[in-house]
Amino acid sequence: AEKLSSMKDMEWNDVLQRMCSLLDSTEKSTGAARSKLNLLYYLCTIAVHKEAASRLINSQLFPILIQQLRAASNWDIRAKVARVIGLLALHTSELGENVPVSEAIILLTELIRDNFRNSKLKQCLLPALGELLYLIASKEEKKEHPRECWVVPSAAYTVLMRCLREGVRIFHC
């Protein structure tokens, strides 16, 4: 993570482009899925560093993570993508206005609602949703006026409260 943080823009863009290409690949082989999972494990490792997390969440990688959360047929990949999103939200120190945080919240909310009886899946998705909500709240608290781009749909609070009422134990996948 330190090495990534200290890279010059050109090197950083090359590495980021390779990561995005691998995640965005539509290849369905077992090897491709394994490569995506390995990259997601790597991203979990570097996402705990503030500088790396800030660079990653504010890059083109974040929309690709959202797309993978929506489209991946492999639930192991979806769970690991949710973990990366949660770690990025937890450890970032900067959040650009153009980061599609609301889109991620909407998608996580839909996935939890659509799979509400699947406790294991909820336990993987809820931490990411919680971290994104906390990130938005902490960033808005520092500003006098909330930003429109960080609007949270009421369904997210409804789903979260329903999960809490049902006593879902939350842990990281």
TrEMBL record:
This is ULK4 kinase. Transmembrane segments: none annotated. Keywords: Kinase, Transferase. The keyword Ribonucleoprotein does not apply. The keyword Kinase applies. GO terms for molecular function: kinase activity. It comes from Centropus bengalensis (lesser coucal).
